[in-house]
Sequence to fold (282 residues):
Amino acid sequence: MRFVPAIIIGVAIMLTPVVWFVTSRLLTTGNVNIAPAVDSAARIELEMLRQQVETAQARIEAMERQMAGLQALPPQTQTGQGTNFGDVNDPPVTDGDNAIIDQYAQVVLIADRRNVNRGKQLLRPRYLRDTVGLPRQNLGDTCQSMTNERLLNKMFRGRIGPINVQLLQPAAESMEEVFNEIRAIDADLYARINTAGGLCVRRIRGSQNSASLHAYGLAIDLNIDGQLDTLGDGKTQLGLTILADAFREKGWIWGAAFSREDSMHFEVGRDLFDQWLNEGRI
Fold:
């Protein structure tokens, strides 16, 4: 037990230069979401450092919980032997090498994923049904055509940035704003954005007649280079963490925080939807 505080102090000392580097970059480039264009290598480096800081912070919290658990044990068991606190110098979990060309598709842990949508309200299927109706009356488990005239007349079908999409018009316009921002600050990432689908009029699997946000054209699945993310593993592609920051600023929800993590999924938040309703855009 007497070694645990020393471990935490050691972690803090090793984090000091990382925190200094991140702080200095932020001071010189401003908020990463609205910063002027920077080279891709610098942006990747900054994002990786942020991931390392957040991962190290999570490990410190885990050690503190283990300390609390050890303190509750009988004195003879408080030796700390056999406790594996991990190596604080371990890099984030990744796939592939460290060449810049592979960085955006690199797989990293999602730090504090349950709180990535903090302050944002989910847009619930029941609320959508009560405000604009179902996208079609008889929903199945496969994608079907939309029959709700109110929604159908406001659908966008076409190209936005590097991808082709089918989304509700205001959602498409909002996503275009996000993509324009990404293109301005990181053209390399912008060029590698791909999609696994937007509009899909079907019911939520396991429900009788509840439509997913994809069924309303209010959600999009994105990935880097066409490489699909593994559902529910708590990890995501590095490029998606950068995209998530930009989407969050525009009022979107990131599926990384869902009970079953779905980090390719981005959907419109309740506040943004209500704004469009009040403006008569839906």
User: Anything to note?
Assistant: The radius of gyration is 22 Å. Residues 40-71 form the longest helix (32 residues). Confidence is low (pLDDT under 50) at residues 1-9, 15-37, 75-98.
